[in-house]
Design brief:
It is globular, with a radius of gyration of 16 Å. Helix 5 links the parallel strand 2 and strand 3. The protein has one domain: sialyltransferase cstii, chain A (Alpha-Beta Complex), CATH 3.90.1480. A nine-stranded parallel sheet has the order 6-5-4-3-2-1-7-8-9, sandwiched between helices. It has 244 residues and is of the alpha/beta class.
Length: 244
């Protein structure tokens, strides 16, 4: 994904949700000031490049995936914010956590203690939570705007689709989705408190559209065990076991 191409999508998101580019930029600057140590991207690349990775979201289908996820301890798991709680409660290690810090902070801190790489996203509505990043052992920052300093832009809007953009950016061989429904039913792990259900569903719809767009320019093999996404092959658990 080229930043010039992403800029068009970002502009659409700002317009649709009435977000402020200026506030997003300010949040990114605050996060950059907190992350004083430059995170070695080679560490992420080693975990993802040419590998099969699991991307795990917090949709309602996540619970069905837990028994299978327990079996694959060595596969890199990129976990969206709220799903961190589900995995830790089931003693499944989160290797990479993608978060805008809206999830359960207790479980984000637990993931950090288990040496997960924390990918913290800065946007205009979470400036007051960014201080949490200072306590993470392995942490890098992201923005939807222009990257600078210790702040990167791998693409993506919601925590879930940002996980996929991250996996694609670092050239995963196979990207397999779990608990990524992008539907109208909000999973219990999705967020501590959903203030506006309609807006949440609109965000999920936009996230799905972004993944469909990403699939058109992606060289990774894309699969989903959740609801169908255009450009992703729908796969059953039994087929997955044979493929890995």
């Amino acid at each position: 994904m080229k930043l010039k191409e992403w800029e068009k999508k970002y502009t659409e998101i700002l317009r649709e949700f009435q977000y402020s580019r200026r506030k997003d930029a300010r949040s990114a600057r605050v996060l950059n000031s907190i992350l004083r140590t430059k995170f070695p991207l080679k560490k992420l690349e080693k975990m993802i490049k040419n590998q099969t990775v699991f991307v795990i979201g917090a949709s309602s289908s996540l619970n069905q995936s837990i028994p299978l996820l327990k079996k694959y301890k060595k596969i890199t798991k990129i976990v969206a914010d709220g799903a961190t709680k589900a995995l830790i409660e089931n003693k499944i290690k989160c290797n990479i956590v993608v978060t805008d810090l809206d999830g359960d902070q207790k479980f984000l801190k637990k993931a950090d203690k288990e040496n997960a790489i924390m990918i913290v996203h800065a946007h205009g509505d979470n400036i007051d939570k960014l201080y949490l990043a200072s306590g993470f052992k392995y942490c890098l920052g992201t923005t939807e705007g222009k990257p600078f300093g210790n702040i990167h832009n791998f693409g993506g809007f919601t925590d879930g689709d940002r996980c996929v953009f991250l996996a694609k950016h670092f050239a995963a061989k196979k990207i397999i989705l779990f608990g990524m429904d992008f539907g109208t039913k909000i999973g219990k792990y999705s967020k501590n408190k959903v203030i506006n259900r309609t807006t949440k569903i609109r965000k999920l719809r936009r996230g799905k559209e972004l993944l469909e767009w990403l699939a058109l320019q992606n060289h990774s093999e894309l699969y989903t065990t959740s609801k169908q996404i255009k450009g992703f092959s729908k796969i059953r658990y039994a087929e997955l076991v044979k493929m890995i």
